[in-house]
Every structure is written in C-alpha cells, then in structure tokens.
Amino acid sequence: MAENGPGVVTDWNGYRRRDFIFEGWDAILVEPTAAALAKWDGAQPWIWRARFFDAWPAVDRAVLERGFHVAYVDVADLFGGPEAVDRFDAYYEYLTAEQGLSRRPVLEGFSRGGLIIYNWAAANADKVCCLYGDAPVCDIRSWPGGLGVGVGNAECWPRCLAAHGLSEADVEGFRGNPIDRLEPLAAAGIPVIHVCGDADDAVPQVENTDVLAARYRALGGRIEVIVKPGVGHHPHSLEDPTPVVDFILAAWRERGEAPV
Question: Does this model's pTM top 0.85?
C-alpha cells in the first residue's frame, strides 16, 4: 500500500472509505456524498475519531449523512503522550493542506481516546471546533492506573507511564492530564460534550468526567454532560445519537471554518 497514496477503497455504511498508510501509520478517511457535502458551500467539515474506529459509530454515520468526513490515524499504545500529539500534528497537516479539510475539526474520543483529543486540543486550541468525549479517560491515574475507585488496567499501566516518560513515583505530581490542561480550551471558547455511564468502573465518571466538567465550568468553559443511568463503560454512544449530533452541528455552525 503506497504511503499517503490511494490505499484500499471500500464501502463503509454506504460511503467511500479509504484505508492507507500515513508516514508508517494506519490511517482512514471516509468521505460524505457530494450532495451532503455541497450544503456546506465549499467548507469541508470533519470529525476525527481518536481511537476504536468503527466501534459504536452512530455519531460518525449521522454526521457523514450531513456532509462531514470521518478521519482516523492510529495512536494505539501512546495514551495521549507527546508521540501521539506529534502524530496528530502530522495527520492534521496532511488532511488540511493536502486534502482540503477544514482547519477546525470535531474531536471525538472514546475511552482512552479522551487522552489524545484533550492533549492535542490543549496544544492546538485555535484548530478545534468542539470536543465529544464518550466515557473518556481524563486522568491516567484513574485509568489505566487504577489509583482511585476504578479497576484500572495492569497491562496498560506500564505502557502508559512509558508513553509519558513517567515513573510510578512521578505520577502523583503529573500535570499532563486532560483535567490539568483545560485553560487553553476555555480561553478559546471550545464547546465540549461528554456521554458517560454512572456505573462505569473502568473509567469512573466521578474521577474523570465529573472532575473535568467542574474544572472546565470554573474556567468559564461550556460543557454538556449526558449521563446514562446504570450503564457501565460499555456500550458507548447513545441509542439515539441526536443530542450529540445536534451539539456538533451547532458547534460547527458557530465555530466552523467558513469557505475560503
């Protein structure tokens, strides 16, 4: 498969999906229909799925129907660390400069994908339309660390520490979590929506979304939280994704890049 080339084209839920290698990493780009895209009058909106492409894709399918592209690049085992941010930087430049996509994507983080969308947004607040977190990890001490009320993940924890250049002794003082890096997002007026289950013992709401939401609001940020009573970490998303889709569309109309 040629690097950055056409790759393999398949059908994904009725849309053209291109799987290719971008600078050595697996990448995906799904295109909306021309008719759906035309409604944006030359703009090229897109949603950036950070992890677990094709898992609970109701929101992705819904925004594709409304003219958004869906993009993905592999950042597995990087846990939102510096290498993941660098990889996102490179893919962003490719999609905006060479593929013509908007300079303000919607960032979508399922579970551990929350780490990279927040850390990339904190470093690139002028390049973000809005954030959608779905049971998102917001503090590595909660997951995979399991240092609070959650079960954690003993297999992922050492890899996460390595991705951030940390030792066990460094973790308590670590300030590189999404919950610690919200000031640039609030200052840029980036709207945020989270969906989470209040029975999640893997990524507990109380240690992740609740902490982040309280801090973001204290900074003047806008965040909407949809809580699923009695639901654990899975299933993600909503049976009817309309509230999330409406939030994304409203954010795009407010903050999306106008056609040049």
Answer: yes
